[in-house]
Amino acid sequence: MRSTRFKKRGPWIDLVLITSILSLIGVILFFTIINDDFSLRDNEANAAHSSIDSSITEEKSTFPGIRIISDISNDPKLPFALQYPQTNDELFNSMIEEYITSSKKNYINAMRLKKKTRKDEALSGELNIHFDTYQYDEVYYSFVFTERMSTNNTATKTTLKTFFYNIETAQVLDIRTLLGEDTKSLETFSSHVRQLLKSNNDLQNLSTEEVDLATEARWILFDKFAINEDNLIIYFDEGTIAPIEQGPISVNVSMSFLNPLLAEEFQMQMVEVDAPVEGLDDGTKKRVALTFDDGPHPQVTKQVLDSLDRYNAKATFFMLGNRVQYYPEIALDVLNRGHEVGNHTWSHPVLPKLTEEQIMNEFTTTENAIISAIGQESTVFRPPYGSTTDAINAMIPRDVAIWSIDTLDWKHRDANKLVQSVKNQMHNNAIILMHDIHQSTADGLNGVLDYLANEGYEFVTVSDIMPYVQ
Ligand code: ZN
Predict the structure, then answer these.
(1) % pLDDT > 90, the chain
(2) What residues sit around ligand 1, an ion, with C-beta below 5 angstroms?
(3) Which pTM was predicted?
(4) Structural domains of the chain sorted by starting position, each given as residue range(s) with its CATH number in brackets
Protein backbone atom coordinates (compact mmCIF):
# COMPACT_ATOMS: atom_id res chain seq x y z
CA MET A 1 0.00 0.00 0.00
CA ARG A 2 2.63 2.36 1.12
CA SER A 3 4.94 1.86 -1.87
CA THR A 4 2.00 2.13 -4.24
CA ARG A 5 0.95 5.46 -2.76
CA PHE A 6 4.56 6.66 -2.80
CA LYS A 7 4.92 5.89 -6.41
CA LYS A 8 1.68 7.68 -7.16
CA ARG A 9 3.10 11.04 -5.93
CA GLY A 10 3.10 13.63 -8.70
CA PRO A 11 5.94 16.13 -9.37
CA TRP A 12 3.80 19.10 -8.11
CA ILE A 13 3.95 17.67 -4.56
CA ASP A 14 7.78 17.75 -4.65
CA LEU A 15 7.65 21.35 -5.67
CA VAL A 16 5.29 22.28 -2.81
CA LEU A 17 7.37 20.37 -0.26
CA ILE A 18 10.68 21.88 -1.33
CA THR A 19 9.23 25.38 -1.40
CA SER A 20 7.74 24.93 2.08
CA ILE A 21 10.99 23.62 3.53
CA LEU A 22 12.99 26.42 1.98
CA SER A 23 10.54 29.04 3.25
CA LEU A 24 10.65 27.55 6.72
CA ILE A 25 14.45 27.63 6.76
CA GLY A 26 14.30 31.18 5.53
CA VAL A 27 11.91 32.22 8.27
CA ILE A 28 13.97 30.45 10.94
CA LEU A 29 17.16 32.01 9.69
CA PHE A 30 15.55 35.43 9.58
CA PHE A 31 14.38 35.25 13.16
CA THR A 32 17.68 33.85 14.35
CA ILE A 33 19.62 36.70 12.79
CA ILE A 34 17.19 39.35 14.03
CA ASN A 35 17.25 37.83 17.48
CA ASP A 36 21.02 37.69 17.48
CA ASP A 37 21.21 41.25 16.43
CA PHE A 38 18.82 42.33 19.21
CA SER A 39 20.54 40.37 21.90
CA LEU A 40 23.90 41.58 20.69
CA ARG A 41 22.86 45.20 20.99
CA ASP A 42 21.23 44.60 24.30
CA ASN A 43 24.34 42.93 25.64
CA GLU A 44 26.56 45.69 24.41
CA ALA A 45 24.46 48.28 26.12
CA ASN A 46 23.95 46.35 29.33
CA ALA A 47 27.55 45.35 29.54
CA ALA A 48 28.61 48.90 28.87
CA HIS A 49 30.69 48.71 32.02
CA SER A 50 32.64 45.64 31.08
CA SER A 51 32.66 45.22 27.31
CA ILE A 52 33.74 48.76 26.53
CA ASP A 53 37.44 49.23 26.95
CA SER A 54 37.79 51.65 29.84
CA SER A 55 39.93 52.17 32.94
CA ILE A 56 38.13 52.36 36.25
CA THR A 57 40.01 53.79 39.21
CA GLU A 58 39.00 54.61 42.74
CA GLU A 59 40.44 57.20 45.08
CA LYS A 60 39.73 58.74 48.46
CA SER A 61 38.24 62.22 48.67
CA THR A 62 38.71 65.03 51.16
CA PHE A 63 35.13 64.43 52.30
CA PRO A 64 34.81 61.77 55.00
CA GLY A 65 33.06 58.64 53.76
CA ILE A 66 33.15 59.60 50.09
CA ARG A 67 35.23 57.79 47.45
CA ILE A 68 35.62 59.01 43.89
CA ILE A 69 35.31 56.60 40.97
CA SER A 70 36.73 57.54 37.58
CA ASP A 71 35.75 55.62 34.47
CA ILE A 72 37.73 56.72 31.44
CA SER A 73 37.38 55.23 27.95
CA ASN A 74 40.41 53.77 26.17
CA ASP A 75 38.55 53.65 22.84
CA PRO A 76 39.34 56.77 20.80
CA LYS A 77 36.21 56.21 18.72
CA LEU A 78 34.05 56.21 21.82
CA PRO A 79 35.59 58.72 24.19
CA PHE A 80 34.14 59.34 27.63
CA ALA A 81 35.31 60.41 31.08
CA LEU A 82 32.98 59.75 33.99
CA GLN A 83 33.46 60.62 37.61
CA TYR A 84 31.09 59.81 40.43
CA PRO A 85 31.03 59.34 44.21
CA GLN A 86 30.51 56.15 46.19
CA THR A 87 29.87 55.73 49.89
CA ASN A 88 29.55 52.73 52.18
CA ASP A 89 25.83 52.60 51.48
CA GLU A 90 24.94 50.01 48.81
CA LEU A 91 21.58 51.59 48.01
CA PHE A 92 23.07 55.00 47.39
CA ASN A 93 25.89 53.50 45.35
CA SER A 94 23.56 51.59 43.07
CA MET A 95 21.39 54.66 42.58
CA ILE A 96 24.40 56.68 41.44
CA GLU A 97 25.64 53.81 39.27
CA GLU A 98 22.23 53.53 37.69
CA TYR A 99 22.36 57.19 36.72
CA ILE A 100 25.90 56.88 35.34
CA THR A 101 25.13 53.65 33.46
CA SER A 102 22.02 55.03 31.87
CA SER A 103 23.87 58.14 30.64
CA LYS A 104 26.58 55.91 29.27
CA LYS A 105 24.03 53.68 27.51
CA ASN A 106 22.36 56.66 25.88
CA TYR A 107 25.68 57.90 24.65
CA ILE A 108 26.94 54.56 23.31
CA ASN A 109 23.64 53.78 21.61
CA ALA A 110 23.49 57.20 19.99
CA MET A 111 27.08 56.84 18.76
CA ARG A 112 26.48 53.30 17.35
CA LEU A 113 23.22 54.26 15.70
CA LYS A 114 24.71 57.17 13.82
CA LYS A 115 27.79 55.17 12.88
CA LYS A 116 25.60 52.40 11.42
CA THR A 117 23.46 54.73 9.37
CA ARG A 118 26.22 57.01 8.16
CA LYS A 119 29.30 54.77 8.02
CA ASP A 120 31.39 57.84 8.56
CA GLU A 121 34.78 57.24 10.20
CA ALA A 122 35.34 60.92 10.97
CA LEU A 123 32.31 61.07 13.26
CA SER A 124 33.12 61.92 16.84
CA GLY A 125 31.46 62.60 20.15
CA GLU A 126 32.14 62.86 23.83
CA LEU A 127 30.56 62.15 27.15
CA ASN A 128 31.91 63.87 30.22
CA ILE A 129 30.36 63.59 33.65
CA HIS A 130 31.95 65.25 36.64
CA PHE A 131 30.54 66.23 40.00
CA ASP A 132 30.97 68.85 42.71
CA THR A 133 30.44 68.13 46.37
CA TYR A 134 28.98 70.51 48.94
CA GLN A 135 28.82 69.75 52.63
CA TYR A 136 26.33 71.18 55.08
CA ASP A 137 26.12 70.62 58.82
CA GLU A 138 28.68 67.78 58.49
CA VAL A 139 26.26 64.98 57.58
CA TYR A 140 24.52 66.49 54.55
CA TYR A 141 26.17 66.12 51.18
CA SER A 142 25.03 67.68 47.94
CA PHE A 143 26.38 66.10 44.76
CA VAL A 144 26.00 68.19 41.64
CA PHE A 145 26.61 66.27 38.42
CA THR A 146 27.39 68.11 35.22
CA GLU A 147 26.91 65.93 32.18
CA ARG A 148 28.22 67.16 28.85
CA MET A 149 27.34 64.99 25.88
CA SER A 150 27.78 65.30 22.15
CA THR A 151 27.31 62.43 19.75
CA ASN A 152 28.76 62.34 16.26
CA ASN A 153 29.43 66.01 15.83
CA THR A 154 26.19 67.18 17.41
CA ALA A 155 26.31 70.26 19.63
CA THR A 156 27.29 69.60 23.23
CA LYS A 157 24.33 69.35 25.55
CA THR A 158 24.84 70.06 29.24
CA THR A 159 22.51 68.45 31.76
CA LEU A 160 22.62 68.82 35.53
CA LYS A 161 21.58 66.32 38.14
CA THR A 162 21.77 66.72 41.88
CA PHE A 163 21.53 64.40 44.87
CA PHE A 164 21.07 65.62 48.45
CA TYR A 165 22.12 62.95 50.87
CA ASN A 166 22.36 62.45 54.61
CA ILE A 167 25.42 60.24 55.03
CA GLU A 168 24.53 59.39 58.63
CA THR A 169 21.01 58.08 57.95
CA ALA A 170 21.74 57.07 54.32
CA GLN A 171 18.70 58.99 53.10
CA VAL A 172 18.33 60.89 49.86
CA LEU A 173 16.25 63.99 50.50
CA ASP A 174 14.44 66.51 48.33
CA ILE A 175 13.76 70.25 48.54
CA ARG A 176 10.33 69.56 49.97
CA THR A 177 11.83 67.85 53.00
CA LEU A 178 14.40 70.62 53.34
CA LEU A 179 11.66 73.25 53.61
CA GLY A 180 9.56 71.14 55.97
CA GLU A 181 6.85 70.48 53.33
CA ASP A 182 5.56 73.95 54.16
CA THR A 183 3.83 75.60 51.19
CA LYS A 184 4.10 79.02 52.83
CA SER A 185 7.88 78.59 52.96
CA LEU A 186 7.84 77.44 49.34
CA GLU A 187 5.96 80.59 48.31
CA THR A 188 8.40 82.87 50.13
CA PHE A 189 11.32 80.92 48.74
CA SER A 190 10.12 80.86 45.14
CA SER A 191 9.32 84.56 45.01
CA HIS A 192 12.75 85.27 46.44
CA VAL A 193 14.46 83.13 43.79
CA ARG A 194 12.45 84.98 41.15
CA GLN A 195 13.57 88.29 42.64
CA LEU A 196 17.22 87.20 42.67
CA LEU A 197 17.10 86.09 39.05
CA LYS A 198 15.53 89.32 37.91
CA SER A 199 17.86 91.58 39.89
CA ASN A 200 21.06 89.80 38.87
CA ASN A 201 23.01 92.05 36.52
CA ASP A 202 24.97 89.11 35.15
CA LEU A 203 21.78 87.57 33.85
CA GLN A 204 20.49 90.21 31.47
CA ASN A 205 19.26 87.84 28.79
CA LEU A 206 16.74 86.06 30.93
CA SER A 207 13.25 85.75 29.56
CA THR A 208 10.88 87.28 32.11
CA GLU A 209 8.11 84.93 31.07
CA GLU A 210 10.31 81.86 31.43
CA VAL A 211 11.61 83.06 34.79
CA ASP A 212 8.05 83.54 36.05
CA LEU A 213 7.13 80.03 34.90
CA ALA A 214 10.30 78.47 36.31
CA THR A 215 9.83 80.06 39.72
CA GLU A 216 6.19 79.30 40.39
CA ALA A 217 5.58 77.95 43.88
CA ARG A 218 5.88 74.29 42.83
CA TRP A 219 8.29 71.86 44.49
CA ILE A 220 9.27 70.15 41.25
CA LEU A 221 10.70 73.39 39.83
CA PHE A 222 13.36 73.53 42.54
CA ASP A 223 14.45 69.88 42.50
CA LYS A 224 18.00 70.67 41.36
CA PHE A 225 19.82 72.18 44.30
CA ALA A 226 22.85 72.03 46.55
CA ILE A 227 23.40 73.46 49.99
CA ASN A 228 26.49 74.57 51.89
CA GLU A 229 27.03 76.65 55.03
CA ASP A 230 26.50 79.96 53.18
CA ASN A 231 23.99 79.32 50.42
CA LEU A 232 21.34 77.15 48.91
CA ILE A 233 22.14 76.94 45.20
CA ILE A 234 19.26 76.41 42.78
CA TYR A 235 20.05 75.18 39.27
CA PHE A 236 18.10 75.67 36.06
CA ASP A 237 18.99 73.54 33.05
CA GLU A 238 20.32 75.18 29.93
CA GLY A 239 17.66 76.63 27.67
CA THR A 240 15.01 76.79 30.40
CA ILE A 241 15.23 80.43 31.48
CA ALA A 242 18.07 81.79 29.33
CA PRO A 243 19.30 81.26 25.76
CA ILE A 244 20.91 77.83 25.43
CA GLU A 245 24.40 79.33 24.80
CA GLN A 246 24.43 80.61 28.38
CA GLY A 247 24.40 77.06 29.70
CA PRO A 248 22.74 76.12 32.98
CA ILE A 249 21.87 79.00 35.32
CA SER A 250 22.40 78.88 39.07
CA VAL A 251 21.26 81.23 41.78
CA ASN A 252 22.52 81.50 45.36
CA VAL A 253 19.96 81.92 48.11
CA SER A 254 21.77 83.23 51.17
CA MET A 255 21.55 81.28 54.40
CA SER A 256 20.40 84.41 56.26
CA PHE A 257 17.32 84.36 54.10
CA LEU A 258 16.89 80.61 54.00
CA ASN A 259 17.49 79.57 57.58
CA PRO A 260 14.07 80.54 59.00
CA LEU A 261 12.37 78.70 56.10
CA LEU A 262 14.19 75.44 56.68
CA ALA A 263 12.64 72.49 58.48
CA GLU A 264 13.84 72.52 62.06
CA GLU A 265 16.36 69.71 61.71
CA PHE A 266 18.18 71.64 58.96
CA GLN A 267 18.25 75.03 60.66
CA MET A 268 21.56 76.46 61.71
CA GLN A 269 21.81 77.58 65.27
CA MET A 270 22.18 81.34 65.13
CA VAL A 271 24.69 82.79 67.54
CA GLU A 272 22.63 84.63 70.13
CA VAL A 273 23.51 88.31 69.97
CA ASP A 274 20.61 89.58 72.07
CA ALA A 275 21.76 90.68 75.49
CA PRO A 276 19.76 89.20 78.36
CA VAL A 277 17.41 91.95 79.53
CA GLU A 278 18.45 91.81 83.16
CA GLY A 279 21.71 91.45 84.99
CA LEU A 280 24.07 91.74 82.03
CA ASP A 281 26.07 94.70 83.20
CA ASP A 282 26.08 97.38 85.90
CA GLY A 283 24.83 100.11 83.57
CA THR A 284 28.22 101.78 83.16
CA LYS A 285 28.74 100.24 79.74
CA LYS A 286 28.47 102.79 76.94
CA ARG A 287 26.26 101.96 74.00
CA VAL A 288 24.52 103.73 71.16
CA ALA A 289 21.96 102.72 68.54
CA LEU A 290 22.41 104.31 65.12
CA THR A 291 19.23 104.34 63.04
CA PHE A 292 18.76 105.07 59.36
CA ASP A 293 15.27 105.90 58.06
CA ASP A 294 13.44 106.13 54.74
CA GLY A 295 15.70 103.77 52.71
CA PRO A 296 16.85 101.56 51.21
CA HIS A 297 18.73 103.64 48.65
CA PRO A 298 20.92 102.03 45.98
CA GLN A 299 24.02 104.20 46.56
CA VAL A 300 23.66 105.80 49.99
CA THR A 301 22.65 102.64 51.86
CA LYS A 302 25.55 100.77 50.35
CA GLN A 303 28.05 103.43 51.44
CA VAL A 304 26.49 103.48 54.93
CA LEU A 305 26.85 99.68 55.15
CA ASP A 306 30.51 99.84 54.11
CA SER A 307 31.25 102.49 56.77
CA LEU A 308 29.48 100.44 59.46
CA ASP A 309 31.48 97.36 58.44
CA ARG A 310 34.74 99.24 58.94
CA TYR A 311 33.82 99.90 62.58
CA ASN A 312 32.16 96.51 63.01
CA ALA A 313 29.09 98.53 64.01
CA LYS A 314 25.54 97.16 64.04
CA ALA A 315 22.68 99.53 63.29
CA THR A 316 18.94 99.59 62.57
CA PHE A 317 17.36 100.49 59.23
CA PHE A 318 13.73 101.64 59.25
CA MET A 319 12.62 100.91 55.72
CA LEU A 320 9.74 102.17 53.65
CA GLY A 321 7.74 99.43 51.93
CA ASN A 322 7.60 101.32 48.65
CA ARG A 323 11.39 101.45 48.57
CA VAL A 324 11.95 97.86 49.72
CA GLN A 325 9.79 96.87 46.76
CA TYR A 326 12.28 98.52 44.39
CA TYR A 327 15.49 97.55 46.18
CA PRO A 328 14.86 94.16 47.80
CA GLU A 329 18.49 93.11 47.29
CA ILE A 330 19.69 96.10 49.32
CA ALA A 331 17.26 95.25 52.11
CA LEU A 332 18.68 91.73 52.06
CA ASP A 333 22.23 93.07 52.13
CA VAL A 334 21.34 95.08 55.26
CA LEU A 335 20.18 91.88 56.96
CA ASN A 336 23.10 89.81 55.68
CA ARG A 337 25.57 92.27 57.12
CA GLY A 338 24.12 91.82 60.59
CA HIS A 339 21.84 94.83 60.95
CA GLU A 340 18.29 95.11 62.17
CA VAL A 341 15.44 95.73 59.73
CA GLY A 342 12.56 97.90 60.94
CA ASN A 343 9.17 98.74 59.42
CA HIS A 344 8.66 102.47 58.68
CA THR A 345 5.30 102.21 56.82
CA TRP A 346 4.69 102.05 53.08
CA SER A 347 4.21 105.70 52.11
CA HIS A 348 5.43 107.76 55.09
CA PRO A 349 2.09 109.27 56.18
CA VAL A 350 1.26 111.03 59.45
CA LEU A 351 -0.34 108.03 61.12
CA PRO A 352 -2.70 109.81 63.58
CA LYS A 353 -4.45 111.32 60.56
CA LEU A 354 -5.37 107.92 59.15
CA THR A 355 -8.13 105.43 59.96
CA GLU A 356 -7.26 102.24 61.83
CA GLU A 357 -7.67 100.29 58.64
CA GLN A 358 -5.34 102.58 56.70
CA ILE A 359 -2.72 102.37 59.44
CA MET A 360 -2.77 98.58 59.46
CA ASN A 361 -2.57 98.60 55.69
CA GLU A 362 0.57 100.79 55.83
CA PHE A 363 2.11 98.33 58.27
CA THR A 364 1.07 95.09 56.56
CA THR A 365 1.98 95.99 52.97
CA THR A 366 5.43 97.00 54.19
CA GLU A 367 5.76 93.77 56.18
CA ASN A 368 4.94 91.78 53.05
CA ALA A 369 7.59 93.63 51.04
CA ILE A 370 10.14 93.03 53.80
CA ILE A 371 9.31 89.34 54.10
CA SER A 372 9.53 88.92 50.36
CA ALA A 373 12.91 90.66 50.28
CA ILE A 374 14.67 89.21 53.32
CA GLY A 375 12.60 86.16 54.19
CA GLN A 376 11.70 87.29 57.66
CA GLU A 377 9.58 89.88 59.46
CA SER A 378 10.75 93.25 60.69
CA THR A 379 11.59 93.29 64.39
CA VAL A 380 10.77 96.89 65.27
CA PHE A 381 8.53 99.75 64.05
CA ARG A 382 9.05 103.49 63.75
CA PRO A 383 6.14 105.81 62.89
CA PRO A 384 7.03 108.45 60.27
CA TYR A 385 8.07 111.72 61.91
CA GLY A 386 7.82 109.97 65.27
CA SER A 387 4.15 110.83 65.10
CA THR A 388 2.04 108.30 66.98
CA THR A 389 -0.53 107.72 69.75
CA ASP A 390 -0.92 105.11 72.48
CA ALA A 391 -3.77 103.60 70.48
CA ILE A 392 -1.54 103.26 67.41
CA ASN A 393 1.32 101.80 69.46
CA ALA A 394 -1.09 99.23 70.85
CA MET A 395 -2.33 98.35 67.38
CA ILE A 396 1.08 97.72 65.80
CA PRO A 397 2.39 94.24 66.63
CA ARG A 398 5.99 95.48 67.09
CA ASP A 399 7.97 97.45 69.61
CA VAL A 400 7.65 101.10 68.61
CA ALA A 401 10.96 102.96 68.67
CA ILE A 402 11.35 106.73 68.37
CA TRP A 403 14.78 108.43 68.91
CA SER A 404 16.59 110.55 71.47
CA ILE A 405 18.98 112.43 69.17
CA ASP A 406 17.77 114.05 65.97
CA THR A 407 20.69 114.97 63.72
CA LEU A 408 18.44 116.99 61.38
CA ASP A 409 20.51 115.56 58.55
CA TRP A 410 17.54 115.89 56.19
CA LYS A 411 17.55 119.65 56.83
CA HIS A 412 21.20 120.74 56.83
CA ARG A 413 22.50 118.09 54.38
CA ASP A 414 26.01 118.77 55.65
CA ALA A 415 28.51 116.06 56.64
CA ASN A 416 30.31 118.31 59.18
CA LYS A 417 27.08 119.40 60.82
CA LEU A 418 26.07 115.75 61.17
CA VAL A 419 29.16 115.00 63.28
CA GLN A 420 28.78 118.23 65.27
CA SER A 421 25.13 117.56 66.06
CA VAL A 422 25.96 114.11 67.47
CA LYS A 423 28.80 115.55 69.57
CA ASN A 424 26.52 118.26 70.98
CA GLN A 425 23.70 115.92 72.01
CA MET A 426 25.47 112.65 72.86
CA HIS A 427 24.40 110.68 75.95
CA ASN A 428 24.56 107.04 76.96
CA ASN A 429 21.98 104.65 75.45
CA ALA A 430 21.14 107.20 72.78
CA ILE A 431 19.08 106.33 69.73
CA ILE A 432 20.35 108.54 66.91
CA LEU A 433 18.12 109.43 63.94
CA MET A 434 19.68 109.68 60.50
CA HIS A 435 18.46 109.03 56.93
CA ASP A 436 20.19 106.74 54.46
CA ILE A 437 18.83 108.64 51.47
CA HIS A 438 21.08 111.70 51.73
CA GLN A 439 24.63 111.56 50.36
CA SER A 440 25.80 114.02 53.05
CA THR A 441 24.73 111.55 55.76
CA ALA A 442 26.78 108.75 54.21
CA ASP A 443 29.73 111.15 53.83
CA GLY A 444 29.56 112.31 57.45
CA LEU A 445 29.05 108.86 58.95
CA ASN A 446 32.74 107.97 59.22
CA GLY A 447 33.24 111.06 61.39
CA VAL A 448 30.31 110.03 63.61
CA LEU A 449 31.59 106.48 63.96
CA ASP A 450 35.11 107.64 64.63
CA TYR A 451 33.99 110.02 67.38
CA LEU A 452 31.70 107.48 69.07
CA ALA A 453 34.25 104.65 68.88
CA ASN A 454 36.90 106.90 70.47
CA GLU A 455 34.44 107.78 73.22
CA GLY A 456 34.12 104.05 73.93
CA TYR A 457 30.57 103.45 72.70
CA GLU A 458 29.46 100.06 71.47
CA PHE A 459 27.21 100.18 68.40
CA VAL A 460 24.08 98.08 68.92
CA THR A 461 20.64 97.73 67.33
CA VAL A 462 17.49 99.42 68.56
CA SER A 463 16.10 96.14 69.90
CA ASP A 464 19.30 95.62 71.86
CA ILE A 465 19.29 99.10 73.39
CA MET A 466 15.56 99.26 74.27
CA PRO A 467 15.92 97.51 77.63
CA TYR A 468 18.34 100.27 78.69
CA VAL A 469 16.21 103.17 77.52
CA GLN A 470 13.96 104.76 80.18
ZN1 ZN B 1 10.99 108.73 57.99
Answers:
(1) 61
(2) 293-294, 384
(3) 0.53
(4) 57-173 (3.30.565.40), 176-266 (3.90.640.20), 287-468 (3.20.20.370)
